[in-house]
Amino acid sequence: MSLSDRSKTALAATAALAFVAAAFWPQTRASAEDMQVVPAPKVDVPANGNTATAVLAGGCFWGVQGVFQHVKGVKDAVSGYSGGSKMTASYPVVSTGTTGHAETVKITYDPSEVSYGKLLQIYFSVVTDPTTLNAQGPDEGTQYRSNIFPTTPEQEKVAKAYIQQLQAAHVFRSPIVTKVTAFKAFYPAEGYHQNYLTLHPEQGYIAANDIPKVEGLKRLFPQEWKQGPVLTATN
Fold first, then answer.
1. pTM greater than 0.85
2. 162 CB contacts (<8 Å, ≥6 apart)?
């Protein structure tokens, strides 16, 4: 079991221990000084309908969910699993890295308030390091891969074009390894994983790896920032 996995099981850690852990936890790209807004996509999905769905994987779903819960126009953000079968869609099994699943967040949003392209811009700017293969920060394994799961042909076109655009512009120092995989299914994660960042902001892993991403969203995308997070329902 990795250091990050042990941290994830310590749900009852005290605030004092969390602060100590945060002081020594490996830093992610989101907390680096060179964090920046990447160029906006040149093509985007037309704003049709009242709601749309984006499915994104970018490392531990705690931070991915926590960021998008603060984006204006996002109506719901649910942590879960995509890429594997229903039978293996549980945290203990997914954590083995052998299921094909990625820790994923299903985002329901209003296209009239925020576009799919804007969500991807936020994703590449503050959520994920698209240059690390099967790893994000201290987390390693295929379940932590950077992966976009388009839910429509238009989303797939935009996602692939955007990656090509960023690659051609040499926005990142290393090649982008983010996958674009056709969406098949999403399985919500266990209830204790939902709204985790909001409920445990002082937990060591969250403080060191995910709070900087939320702060980055607020600093780099002030027009898209929403102070109060939209929390998902839990059973």
1. yes
2. 41, 42, 43, 117, 120, 124
